[in-house]
Amino acid sequence: MEFNNLIILIATILLLVSIFTSLISFRIGAPLLLIFLGVGLAAGEDGIGGISFDNTPAAFLIGSVALAIILFESGFDTRFSSYRVAAAPALTLATVGVLITTGLVGLAAHVALSLPWRESLLLGAIVSSTDAAAVFFLLRVGGITLRDRVRSTLEIESGTNDPMSIFLTLALVQLITADGDQSPWHLPALFLSQIGGGVLFGLVGGWLLVLAINRVKLEPGLYPIVSLSMALFIFALAGVAEGSGFLAVYVAGLVAGNSKLRGAQSLRRFHNGLTWLSQIVMFVMLGLLASPAQFPSLFLPAAALAVVLILVARPIAIWLCLAPFRFTNNETTFIAWVGLRGAVSILLAIVPILFGLPDGQLYFNIAFLIVMMSLLVQGWTIRPLAHWLKLIVPPRIGPVDRVELELPGQADYELVAYTILEHSPVVSGHRLPRWARPSLIIRDGQVRTIHTVRHLQAGDLVYLFTAPSRVSMLDRLFGETRELAEDDRQFFGDLALKADMTVAALAELYGLPLSIRNAKLTLAELFRQEFRDAVEVGDRLRMGSVELIARDMQDGELRVVGLALEPAAPQSGPRPPAIPLPRDLIRMLEAARSRLYFRLWQRRQRRQARRAERLARRQAKRQAKDEASRSAD
What we know:
- It contains 23 helices and nine strands.
- It is α+β, with helices and mostly antiparallel strands.
- The protein is globular.
- One of its GO terms (molecular function) is antiporter activity.
């Protein structure tokens, strides 16, 4: 009994230390997951805690369950609209990108560690996938507001590339241990089983989860337990059926999160808190499992592989995979840099140990060091790099809180809260419609009603009941500013125009050059024509001396266009270390070829001039001799 209490005491101490040391992360900007990993290392057998933990099967089991919970929440919080924006590039990165990264890191491991080719590729597969938890936490919890397409690409890639990495790791381990006894069709069959089974179990399981929550009458506190149990059931069942449990649980979360669920907001809060717990438990446990005393002898080869992964393999994979898509140089560079490795790589590094491979501990230590370096170098620099590449966009302020109400019958209402901004329309005297009048107002810590407050003012916290369909309209009254701040103005333009205005009307109004072919198009149609129906907020079009900016989207349709009267001078390209896009590389090669041809032409012209000059001198000498001989005669 005393031993059990001691275990519980140690576990809760580690949990509380991890939570409170996260305050340090927010103060100094350190990657939060690195803090959790550091707590585990400090408490381990080589740290000040001296806790000995070497149970790799238990670590793999706990880590797998924690990762399944994290992936379910990742899918639950991902909108289908993100897939419409970024599905093709993200899924290309999650499959082809993982293969390219595996090959390049495997080549580097073969050179740096002198491992056989299969073992080298195994190490490449272990560290080939980005960590969903690391990316989601840094982009969402870190508050980095990026353009939708860039953010969606990163989040979808990190959520869907784990199955490919897991498949490669398991396949290579089986190849190493099988000694060539397997059929050549084994790997394609395993791939189809893992990916196809994962998608199938995820779709069916997600549909059943939605059905269970919406159709079965339970106590409200049991619905989060049902969603968690169903998620883990889907994960385990897909794994038993030789499908990818991680892909299945992510797809199930995606289906459930994009469906109308009873108590959806409470479910989101529950899974958000559970994801935090899973993240802390997984990283602290993996820190306990590590043996830092073995790290110094492997530091140099691990550092060399980390440099290859961060600066060579990942950028090349991103460059090749994003070549067919319309990403700018800055966006390509940022996506290449946000390739954080995390718990997934360390978890996969346990697989060779479980299978009894001779170099199993080597894989674990190398992967652990690479993850540490990735979190240190990339995790610490994501926000500064996003600012440096000018990819940060102004946040569009919405409700600070939303609570779904369980009302009898078919009534569908929410309680939403807004903090009034300084330049909100309601502050400037905009009259509120009846359906938008607050039920409760908190000003200076005191509760008031709309009947006792003559005018709303900046800083007021207002609560009101509304239907979910009206939240976007409330955003315009309470959340978004009419008078844009300077940073906002630079991004969204000086003036707001309706997207149904024709190009001809705009050209006539501001004296702009007009293309006859585009004259009858509306601004919305002009953007769709230019961006191939993939318009998103922040997209820009140059029109004479002004710039048109996609400013407001509703239901996938462009509604408001910003007009920048004095647009910033266009950049010739991103600052190094930018990755040139194929079209830019082609231009560079063509320019280089033109310069080479020009230099060759100049050289040929100089040679011809020198030849003509020598010929002229010879002719002059010959004429002089002829004249001299004629004079002598």
